[in-house]
Specification:
Chains A, B: This is Homoserine O-succinyltransferase. The structure is a homodimer of 379-residue chains. By secondary structure, chain A is α/β, with parallel strands linked by helices. Chain A folds into two domains: 251 residues, 3-Layer(aba) Sandwich (Rossmann fold); 99 residues, Rna Polymerase Sigma Factor, Chain: A, CATH 1.10.1740.110. Helix content of chain A is 33%, strand content 14%. Chain A has an eight-stranded mixed beta sheet, with helices on both faces. In chain A, strands 2-3 form a two-stranded antiparallel sheet. In chain A, a hairpin with a 5-residue loop joins strand 2 and strand 3. The longest helix of chain A has 15 residues. At the A-B interface, helix 3, helix 5, helix 6, helix 7 and helix 8 of A face helix 3, helix 5, helix 6, helix 7 and helix 8 of B.
Chain lengths: 379, 379
């Protein structure tokens, strides 16, 4: 943590855990008999219960979106740049709820949780969960918190997909949907990258068919490779070029396979290494599957406008010029469908060199527009 | 093979092997005491020895570029669409030489060859080879074949880099250089993809530090992952979308990790599987390193025009609009440097949806322009 908590921080926060005993039917046909969700809240719910904002996380995200858990924390929550007093999601106005999704590995029930039927970690026995399933589980959390209707559901990337799904699954319960750096479904190339990541994990001998925890090991190599591939798609070619170019790690070339020649190799190895020691491989598989399966238009003859026609929310869609994981064209698909469905939609394409990761970065024009939209929400 | 050999095929061909006993000093500082190169030739060398064309192969290519080895062959050589009587590289006019590069796994000396010092396969002991090393070894092959000067040196992708290097290493020995879908050096993103592929191979427990052949195994999983990543970069997002879209493998979703849900997953797994059973993992590592290291401008204060100023060849540069591995902008860098160095250069940007792989595909406008350039070469 910085020496003093910044004035625009939500400060010290603590996660809460909610247990759900009512079985949850999943899209895959299976049922979770019981589960828990871990979440944090920032700001105060107003008397009318009309100022609640739900934050939906992306592939490797979690409930800790803002503030600090401990005075020793080096870094705040993952979206601290956007959540806090006076920030885009202003905690002086909004009551913010941020959870770890079902299947996660940060405190909500997931593959590394104990399966009550066996007394062992679920591992590969944890059911495949979809964006729809997550939204259903989030609705139950809203019920518990006494939130009949969200002022806004907000998310970037996979989080944006959940925000969109909310407007279709629970049209009456969302007044505003903010989908940032997102897409209405994955392209073949998006699925291909996910498949490489999955095969890296599945083919790691330490994966043990998903039951590695029982063996006391983790498929570190597979998870590392998966993250390395992912990272390439999070950054733009330009951003990588600016950040690393062809910069060498040491003064001269080594001409072997074990040395790190280029700085970009060092960066990727570090990112992969760090991630592989903190993230669950089965959760990674689940998250990529949730991405692959998301396709709300599919049930409407591939007519996205048809799928979105039931929505009652207003929409804000934001994309970034150099994002090649979910390019601005993918946001245009959402915006065009919303216009065809006669919904209110604001769209902003932010000129930013950072690629997909831009949604996590405090880019002035992005924050200004995001704050502008959020501030106009009546609570 | 088709039922009859097509009239525009070079027909049945046989590779030849040349042994070199004179040591070859390599860029890495090591020396190969002796080695062999496997090659094929198509067409006839004219009396003036002025009609020879060298074909340089890309990452996974080899010497068998055109024609058939056997009447039972299902497919011709890898660039049969461009080499043959009346084709872009017209074997009625040209004497075409196509070799497998040093470090390869198709008959030239490489990591799977026997190291004369140990009596065992070189494996990881095979030295790292660079594009400059390849060009030097190719020059020795030219000497043996009595070719003082190539009418043209031609290549796509990594092959284009060799063609460019020829004009700098041996300016007097190249009259024309044709560099297709190539780049003057890798970007950070290009290196990053190579690094993922390398880590997939290096971290495979069956890699055994590169000495897997002695163990009687191959790092199949690593090589499969490497090829899957590579394949994504060879195709355009559009091409993948057109070819596979979100098409399912079976009628309904399976919601598990072992089934193949989408056709694009099936395609990638097949490509990876097929490749891993025919290609050497150490060769793959070497090829990616040769790509990473290629940077002729580096020795000239990053001035590519300065690096190319010694060239005496005329140049033809061809790029493809949807190639995102080596985008048209990368070819522009080459063309701009050539113009700054006052060289003769023809440039064609072909509108093609196939991505990087387009250079292997018989696209009419591409073939027409390529043939047009080659036909104007005086022999």
């Amino acid at each position: 943590m910085p020496t003093a908590i910044p004035a625009d921080s939500v400060g010290l926060v603590s996660p809460k855990v909610e247990h759900f005993a009512e079985p949850l039917a999943l899209a895959c046909g299976r049922t979770l008999d019981s589960y828990q969700l871990i979440y944090e809240t920032y700001g105060e719910l107003n008397a009318a219960r009309s100022n609640a904002v739900l934050i939906c996380h992306a592939l490797s995200g979690h409930h800790h979106a803002a503030g600090f858990h401990d005075t020793e924390d080096r870094k705040p929550g993952w979206w601290d740049s956007c959540i806090g007093p006076g920030k885009a999601i202003d905690t002086n106005r909004f009551y913010v709820v941020s959870l770890n999704n079902l299947g996660g590995c940060n405190g909500s029930t997931g593959p590394s949780s104990i399966n009550p039927l066996t007394g062992k970690p679920y591992g590969a026995d944890f059911p495949v969960v979809t964006v729809e399933d997550w939204v259903n589980s989030q609705a139950r959390l809203a019920d518990v918190l006494g939130i009949e209707q969200w002022a806004a559901v907000v998310g970037g990337s996979l989080g944006g997909m959940q925000a969109l799904q909310w407007t279709m699954s629970y049209p009456e319960r969302v007044r505003h949907c903010v989908a940032i750096a997102s897409a209405p479904k994955l392209s073949a190339q998006n699925i291909a990258f996910n498949e490489v990541a999955r095969q890296a994990i599945l083919s790691d001998p330490e994966f043990h068919g998903g039951h590695f925890l029982e063996q006391g090991v983790i498929p570190k190599r597979g998870l590392m490779l998966a993250r390395m591939v992912g990272h390439i798609t999070y950054l733009s070619d330009d951003a990588m070029g600016t950040k690393f170019g062809r910069g060498l790690k040491s003064e001269k070339l080594n001409y072997d396979f074990n040395s790190v020649e280029f700085q970009v190799e060092s960066y990727l190895r570090y990112q992969g290494e760090e991630f592989s020691s903190r993230f669950d491989a089965n959760t990674y598989l689940l998250m990529t599957k949730a991405l692959d399966y998301f396709d709300p238009a599919a049930a409407h003859d591939d007519d996205l406008a048809g799928a979105l026609s039931c929505a009652k929310a207003d929409f804000c869609v934001i994309s970034f010029t150099t994002d090649w994981r979910f390019s601005p064209e993918r946001s245009h698909e959402i915006v065009n469908a919303l216009m065809a469905a006669r919904k209110n939609v604001c769209y902003l394409e932010v000129d930013a060199p950072q690629g997909h990761d831009a949604f996590l970065i405090p880019i002035p024009r992005y924050l200004q527009a995001f704050r502008g939209y959020m501030n106009r929400i009546v609570v």
